[in-house]
Fold this sequence. Notes:
Number of domains: 1
Order of helices and strands: EEHHHHHHHH
Helix content: 40-55%
Structural class: mainly alpha
Amino acid sequence: MDEELTxxxxxxxxxxxxxxxxxxxxxxxxxxxxxxLDLGVQTEDLRQRLVQRVLRRLQSQVERDxxxxxxxxxxxxxxxxxxxxxxxxRAVAMAGAECxxxxxxxxxxxxxxxxxxxxxxxxxxxPGICERLLAAAPRPLPAAAPLAMPTAELRLRRFRPxxxxxxxxxxxx
Length: 173
Protein backbone atom coordinates (compact mmCIF):
# COMPACT_ATOMS: atom_id res chain seq x y z
CA MET A 1 0.00 0.00 0.00
CA ASP A 2 2.07 2.97 1.25
CA GLU A 3 5.79 2.78 1.08
CA GLU A 4 7.75 2.83 4.31
CA LEU A 5 8.72 6.38 5.15
CA THR A 6 12.16 7.41 6.23
CA UNK A 7 12.23 10.39 8.51
CA UNK A 8 14.89 12.98 8.94
CA UNK A 9 14.40 16.17 10.92
CA UNK A 10 14.26 19.34 8.82
CA UNK A 11 13.52 21.77 11.63
CA UNK A 12 12.14 21.57 15.14
CA UNK A 13 8.92 19.55 14.94
CA UNK A 14 9.01 19.16 11.14
CA UNK A 15 9.98 15.92 9.48
CA UNK A 16 10.66 15.19 5.84
CA UNK A 17 9.87 12.14 3.75
CA UNK A 18 11.46 13.41 0.59
CA UNK A 19 8.04 14.59 -0.60
CA UNK A 20 7.63 18.22 -1.51
CA UNK A 21 5.38 19.86 1.03
CA UNK A 22 4.56 23.52 0.79
CA UNK A 23 5.50 25.83 3.64
CA UNK A 24 1.79 26.33 4.45
CA UNK A 25 1.28 22.60 4.87
CA UNK A 26 4.43 22.17 6.95
CA UNK A 27 3.19 24.99 9.18
CA UNK A 28 0.23 22.90 10.44
CA UNK A 29 2.48 19.98 11.48
CA UNK A 30 2.35 20.93 15.19
CA UNK A 31 -1.47 21.07 15.17
CA UNK A 32 -1.77 17.63 13.57
CA UNK A 33 0.85 16.25 15.96
CA UNK A 34 -1.04 17.69 18.95
CA UNK A 35 -4.36 16.30 17.69
CA UNK A 36 -2.88 12.81 17.34
CA LEU A 37 -1.35 13.12 20.81
CA ASP A 38 -4.76 14.12 22.20
CA LEU A 39 -6.31 11.11 20.44
CA GLY A 40 -3.90 8.86 22.29
CA VAL A 41 -0.94 8.32 19.96
CA GLN A 42 1.84 8.43 22.56
CA THR A 43 4.87 7.26 20.56
CA GLU A 44 6.75 10.13 18.90
CA ASP A 45 7.92 8.07 15.92
CA LEU A 46 4.47 6.64 15.28
CA ARG A 47 2.91 10.10 15.58
CA GLN A 48 5.39 11.50 13.05
CA ARG A 49 4.62 8.71 10.59
CA LEU A 50 0.89 9.40 10.89
CA VAL A 51 1.47 13.15 10.59
CA GLN A 52 3.34 12.55 7.32
CA ARG A 53 0.44 10.52 5.92
CA VAL A 54 -1.98 13.31 6.81
CA LEU A 55 0.34 15.99 5.38
CA ARG A 56 0.53 14.14 2.06
CA ARG A 57 -3.27 14.08 1.87
CA LEU A 58 -3.46 17.71 2.93
CA GLN A 59 -0.92 18.85 0.30
CA SER A 60 -3.15 17.75 -2.58
CA GLN A 61 -6.11 19.52 -1.00
CA VAL A 62 -4.12 22.72 -0.48
CA GLU A 63 -3.04 22.73 -4.13
CA ARG A 64 -6.68 22.45 -5.15
CA ASP A 65 -8.48 24.74 -2.63
CA UNK A 66 -5.74 27.18 -1.56
CA UNK A 67 -6.83 27.68 2.08
CA UNK A 68 -4.64 29.68 4.42
CA UNK A 69 -4.38 30.53 8.09
CA UNK A 70 -7.19 29.23 10.23
CA UNK A 71 -8.93 27.65 7.23
CA UNK A 72 -5.80 25.57 6.61
CA UNK A 73 -5.75 24.45 10.26
CA UNK A 74 -9.41 23.42 9.93
CA UNK A 75 -8.55 21.50 6.76
CA UNK A 76 -5.73 19.76 8.66
CA UNK A 77 -8.07 18.64 11.44
CA UNK A 78 -10.68 17.47 8.93
CA UNK A 79 -8.03 15.63 6.93
CA UNK A 80 -6.72 13.89 10.06
CA UNK A 81 -10.18 12.56 10.86
CA UNK A 82 -10.76 11.73 7.18
CA UNK A 83 -7.54 9.68 7.21
CA UNK A 84 -8.83 7.67 10.19
CA UNK A 85 -12.33 7.39 8.69
CA UNK A 86 -10.96 6.16 5.34
CA UNK A 87 -9.11 3.37 7.14
CA UNK A 88 -12.29 2.44 9.04
CA UNK A 89 -14.32 2.54 5.80
CA ARG A 90 -11.84 0.10 4.20
CA ALA A 91 -12.25 -2.22 7.21
CA VAL A 92 -16.05 -2.02 6.95
CA ALA A 93 -15.98 -2.63 3.18
CA MET A 94 -13.60 -5.56 3.59
CA ALA A 95 -15.99 -7.18 6.08
CA GLY A 96 -18.96 -6.59 3.78
CA ALA A 97 -20.80 -4.73 6.52
CA GLU A 98 -22.82 -1.59 6.00
CA CYS A 99 -22.29 1.48 8.10
CA UNK A 100 -23.49 4.93 7.11
CA UNK A 101 -22.01 6.77 10.09
CA UNK A 102 -18.34 6.19 10.86
CA UNK A 103 -18.23 8.45 13.92
CA UNK A 104 -19.28 5.73 16.43
CA UNK A 105 -16.69 3.40 14.91
CA UNK A 106 -14.02 6.12 15.17
CA UNK A 107 -14.97 6.59 18.84
CA UNK A 108 -14.69 2.85 19.41
CA UNK A 109 -11.31 2.82 17.67
CA UNK A 110 -9.69 5.60 19.67
CA UNK A 111 -11.24 4.45 22.96
CA UNK A 112 -9.71 1.02 22.99
CA UNK A 113 -11.51 -1.38 20.63
CA UNK A 114 -8.07 -1.90 19.07
CA UNK A 115 -5.33 -1.30 21.63
CA UNK A 116 -2.69 -0.77 18.93
CA UNK A 117 -4.89 1.34 16.63
CA UNK A 118 -2.24 3.95 15.73
CA UNK A 119 0.07 1.21 14.42
CA UNK A 120 -2.86 -0.42 12.62
CA UNK A 121 -3.53 2.80 10.66
CA UNK A 122 -0.18 2.39 8.91
CA UNK A 123 -1.22 -0.84 7.18
CA UNK A 124 -4.38 -2.13 5.50
CA UNK A 125 -7.10 -3.29 7.89
CA UNK A 126 -6.93 -6.93 8.93
CA PRO A 127 -9.91 -9.28 8.84
CA GLY A 128 -12.00 -9.17 12.00
CA ILE A 129 -11.30 -5.52 12.79
CA CYS A 130 -14.72 -4.37 11.61
CA GLU A 131 -16.47 -6.81 13.91
CA ARG A 132 -14.43 -5.59 16.89
CA LEU A 133 -15.25 -1.97 16.05
CA LEU A 134 -18.95 -2.68 15.57
CA ALA A 135 -19.10 -4.58 18.87
CA ALA A 136 -17.43 -1.72 20.76
CA ALA A 137 -19.24 1.16 19.02
CA PRO A 138 -21.56 3.20 21.21
CA ARG A 139 -25.24 2.58 20.52
CA PRO A 140 -27.73 5.43 20.17
CA LEU A 141 -30.50 5.70 22.70
CA PRO A 142 -33.84 4.24 21.62
CA ALA A 143 -36.53 6.61 20.44
CA ALA A 144 -38.67 8.10 23.16
CA ALA A 145 -41.81 6.06 23.78
CA PRO A 146 -45.10 7.68 24.75
CA LEU A 147 -45.92 7.37 28.43
CA ALA A 148 -48.96 5.34 29.48
CA MET A 149 -49.82 7.68 32.32
CA PRO A 150 -53.39 9.03 32.49
CA THR A 151 -53.78 12.75 32.15
CA ALA A 152 -54.43 14.60 35.37
CA GLU A 153 -56.24 17.86 35.82
CA LEU A 154 -54.32 20.55 37.63
CA ARG A 155 -56.16 23.36 39.32
CA LEU A 156 -54.16 26.48 39.65
CA ARG A 157 -55.19 29.22 42.01
CA ARG A 158 -54.71 32.73 40.95
CA PHE A 159 -51.64 34.09 42.65
CA ARG A 160 -51.58 37.76 43.46
CA PRO A 161 -48.19 38.71 44.89
CA UNK A 162 -49.30 42.03 46.34
CA UNK A 163 -52.22 40.48 48.23
CA UNK A 164 -49.93 37.77 49.54
CA UNK A 165 -47.39 40.36 50.75
CA UNK A 166 -50.11 42.35 52.51
CA UNK A 167 -51.36 39.25 54.32
CA UNK A 168 -47.85 38.35 55.46
CA UNK A 169 -46.83 41.84 56.47
CA UNK A 170 -47.01 42.48 60.20
CA UNK A 171 -49.79 44.93 61.07
CA UNK A 172 -49.32 47.73 63.48
CA UNK A 173 -51.90 48.66 65.71
